[in-house]
């Protein structure tokens, strides 16, 4: 009976994943989800002026709703409701969060560019949600989705092999077997944007400090490649063959990432970290290519709360400035403005395709339930609501097919043939026109 229940549960999960995948294929807007961090023991002990314990500033109302308590003045407060594509309460575990966004892994394997963007105030749980612990149930979205991509590729290869065996007797020959050989490649690049500088976290020798060539550092440039997609020039990339290799790269990047201790967070990220995973899979006849961007933004901070100075104050200013630039881009997209200021920040420039281009994008908003963070939480929820309103084009898969290429080449040849025939026809018409004119001249002379 237990095995039957487990099988039924697995089927239901697969069915739910397929439904969400179909929804994603039909929607063009940014998907926005909200996760509420568990309240800490220190936050629970805080009291108001009357000596009463403060209740959390935000709570989950339903699977898609979050309510925030906002104080109008010293004596009254009101509730504000925010709607999202999915909301997780403080008791939701890492596995439950990933189950709801798991279909994005299928999007990547099918050739859709995908972006998962973690946004929220400092200490709200962004890095834990994205990375979590290296092993066990506390693993975050990044290691889980990479593991899922490897599983889906393996299933795809197994399915193709079974189909090839079934049709082996019908289609024989070296060319046929070669076209059915399934191959896949996964490459990873990891960088951080620190004080508006790009740093390669997988290249410890230079860390790509965005300096000029005279300094001996490798300059990282954000530009468009030949296909017209945003890319980071000179970023080192590693080919991985299993999820464990991805974990090793994550640990290496975490050691190099800029961090500091502040009054808000003892392990505060002082940079935006961007993981670019390029997934290519398929046969000689058809290849699916996609980029998966996993973005862990630095948290917004208020100086009087984080209590920083010197270098950390400079870091705070750069973080807030880039997040403000992201807000300006969101506002411009929301209002369908003719000009969107992507170039005001390296963060927004790097995320241009994710926010407006050919990509399936999910924003993971994390909020702090502490009552003393009420205003920051409210601002975060308002920002997320604006992002959810943005309407974009429906993403298209990046599929390269030899069948399509041959068809296109055939059509091009047909166009050339028709154009040649048209040119010959025009030449014949011109000659006939000349002959007609000569005949008319002769008739006039005879008359």
Identify the notable features of this structure and list them briefly:
alpha+beta, 3-stranded antiparallel β-sheet, elongated
Overall number of strands? 17
Q: Estimate the global geometry from the Cα principal axes.
A: elongated
Average pLDDT works out at 82
The biggest beta sheet reads: 10 strands, mixed
Low-pLDDT windows of residues: 208-214
Give the terminus-to-terminus CA distance.
109 Å
Q: What's the tally of helices?
A: 14
Which structural class matches the secondary elements? Answer: alpha+beta
Q: Helical percent range?
A: 40-55%
The oligomeric state of the chains shown is: single chain
* Percentage beta strand: 15-25%
The Cα radius of gyration reads: 28 Å
Topology:
Blueprint: H1 2-26, E1 31-36, H2 41-45, E2 58-60, E3 65-71, E4 77-83, E5 86-88, H3 94-101, H4 103-109, E6 114-120, H5 126-130, H6 141-166, H7 174-179, E7 183-194, E8 197-200, E9 221-224, E10 230-233, E11 238-240, H8 243-256, E12 259-260, E13 268-269, E14 272-282, E15 286-296, H9 303-306, H10 311-334, H11 346-350, H12 352-356, E16 360-367, H13 374-389, E17 399-401, H14 402-446
Parallel strand pairs: 1-5, 1-16, 6-15, 6-16
Antiparallel strand pairs: 2-3, 3-4, 7-8, 7-11, 7-14, 9-10, 12-13, 14-15, 15-17
């Amino acid at each position: 009976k237990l095995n039957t229940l487990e099988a039924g549960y697995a089927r239901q999960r697969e069915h739910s994943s397929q439904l969400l995948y179909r929804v994603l294929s039909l929607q063009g807007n940014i998907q926005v989800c909200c996760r509420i961090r568990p309240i800490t023991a220190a936050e629970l002990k805080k009291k108001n002026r009357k000596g009463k314990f403060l209740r959390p500033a935000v709570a989950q109302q339903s699977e898609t709703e979050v309510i925030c308590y906002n104080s109008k003045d010293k004596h009254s407060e009101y509730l504000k409701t925010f709607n999202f594509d999915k909301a997780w309460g403080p008791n939701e575990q890492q596995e439950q969060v990933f189950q709801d966004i798991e279909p994005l892994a299928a999007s990547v394997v099918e050739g859709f560019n995908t972006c998962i963007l973690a946004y929220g105030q400092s200490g709200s749980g962004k890095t834990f949600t994205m990375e979590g612990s290296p092993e066990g149930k506390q693993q975050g979205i990044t290691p889980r989705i990479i593991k899922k991509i490897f599983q889906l590729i393996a299933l795809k290869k197994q399915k193709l092999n079974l189909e090839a065996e079934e049709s082996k007797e019908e289609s024989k020959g070296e060319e046929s077997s070669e076209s059915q050989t399934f191959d896949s490649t996964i490459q990873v690049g990891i960088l951080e944007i620190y004080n508006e500088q790009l740093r390669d976290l997988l290249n410890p020798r230079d860390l790509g400090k965005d300096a000029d060539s005279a300094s001996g550092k490798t300059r990282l440039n954000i530009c468009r490649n030949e296909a017209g997609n945003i890319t980071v020039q000179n970023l080192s990339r590693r080919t991985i063959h299993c999820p464990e290799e991805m974990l090793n790269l994550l640990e290496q990047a975490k050691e190099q990432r800029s961090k500091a201790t502040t009054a808000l967070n003892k392990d505060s990220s002082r940079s935006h970290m961007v993981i670019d995973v390029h997934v290519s899979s398929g046969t000689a006849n058809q290849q699916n290519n996609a980029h998966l961007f996993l973005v862990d933004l630095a948290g917004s901070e208020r100086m009087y709360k984080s209590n920083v100075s010197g270098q950390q104050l400079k870091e705070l200013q750069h973080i807030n400035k880039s997040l403000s630039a992201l807000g300006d881009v969101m506002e411009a997209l929301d209002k369908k403005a003719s000009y969107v200021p992507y170039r005001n920040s390296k963060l927004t420039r790097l995320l241009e395709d994710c926010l407006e281009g050919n990509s399936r994008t999910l924003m993971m908003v994390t909020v702090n339930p502490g009552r003393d963070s009420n205003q920051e939480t409210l601002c975060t929820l308002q920002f997320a609501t604006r992002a959810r309103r943005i309407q974009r084009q429906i993403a298209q898969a990046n599929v390269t097919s030899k069948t399509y290429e041959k068809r296109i080449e055939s059509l091009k040849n047909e166009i050339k043939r028709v154009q040649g025939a048209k040119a010959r026809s025009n030449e014949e018409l011109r000659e006939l026109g000349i002959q007609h004119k000569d005949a008319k001249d002769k008739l006039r002379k005879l008359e």
